[in-house]
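Sanity check

After download, print the first record. It should look like this:
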Amino acid sequence: MKKIFSILSICALLCTSCGKDFLELEPQSTIAPETFFKTASDAITAVNGCYQSLAVGSQYGGTFQILMESRGDNFLDQDPSSGAGQNYQINRFSDSPGNTNLYNSWVSLYSSIFRCNTVLESVDPINMDNTLKNRIKGEASFIRALAYFNLVRLWGGVPVVSSTVSPSEAGNLTRNSVADVYALIESDLKFAAANLPLSYGTTDLGRVTKGAAQGMLGKVYMYERKFNDAKTILEEVVASQKFSLLPNVADAFSPTVKYHAEILYAVRYAKGIAGQDHGFWYANTQVVGLDSTLYKAYDAVDTRRTLIEFAKPSGNNNIMPRKFFDTPVNNAAGNDFPILRYADVLLLHAEAINELGYNSSAFTSLNLVRKRAGLAELTSAELPDQASFRNEIYKQRRLELAFECDRWFDLVRTNTAIAAIEACGKKQTIASFRFLYPIPQQEIDIMNNPSGFPQNPGY
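Expected structure tokens:
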């Protein structure tokens, strides 16, 4: 009964949002699905609980910034003592399977998956509008896909659980292959794209749209190196004209004007409401965590450079990047965390075209991002071949998406992590087994199955 999936079946049976507004994310109750799912309103309430699971501190509320960004070359942790040094260990590649950041995120991600599985299994019997039913299933499918996308990038092959499981079934789970995980992710995102609307009314802003599912599928294809598939689906997002770059890049991170034309999907928060706000991302009361190599990578005229500078809001002891700067209420912030922006889509689109063969058509998407940042447009005179274009894309992804939980994964998928970590302030030579995190030791001990549930190599 101590196995993690049985724990989830008890603790995460269905923590749902019972408020009237979609943004009211605080779970109010734990309800057994066999007694809860009766009406369309119940189904909406349940899927709201799936959204809520992304906002917690062990995911986008805090820990993901450590696992996905601090690990890379943008952030230099200079505080080895706080939190028993566990954040510092992640930053400096001295983490072990006992690091609580790993365990907390692992449990939280499978909690998200359990919620989504519960919704997907329980909605079909409800007598309700079929379009709404499929929309709700599409929302749950997207969130489950996002959870597995994070799991596979953090740990590699993990158990694929596509239905609710009993305690006895949980005890027999094994680690699936990376290909198995990506197969489920693709399937979920395709279903979501086919069943989600292009947009929502004001009260439902923040729900997943068709464009968000398509854009995320394109990103997944890039990690799988399915460049032709990525190019095709990303071009659909561009052609839809549902999204665009804001003229001022700083406005893309406004804590007050949210879900604008540049956001495909973001995790929503609300300042001043307990359970719906969050702590300050990358904040520190002692030292600036910005790695000097990131700051130096920006041209002097690049309007994005000020966004990565650290600043201190009034009435607060923390310093944080201006990109996520928000005036505190009760020592907490309420800005949303962007999961997928249109700038990301454009850079992925340009990269996909280039990986299929150097082609002048890739310059259009690249230059849209550069021009918005105040940089000159580039041509084949400056980037005469596939390699030079590829390097420019990698550079622009670092500059554009700094602190948005993409950098470490980009370094790994482009096979540039070792060189980048050697060149940044850490100046470490890392072994390739560090590209994946260790499976939390608690899970290894509980499952006790070296052949079916092994630890990642090197740990």
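If your output differs, re-run the checksum step. Summary of this record's structure: The chain is about 45% helix and 5% strand.
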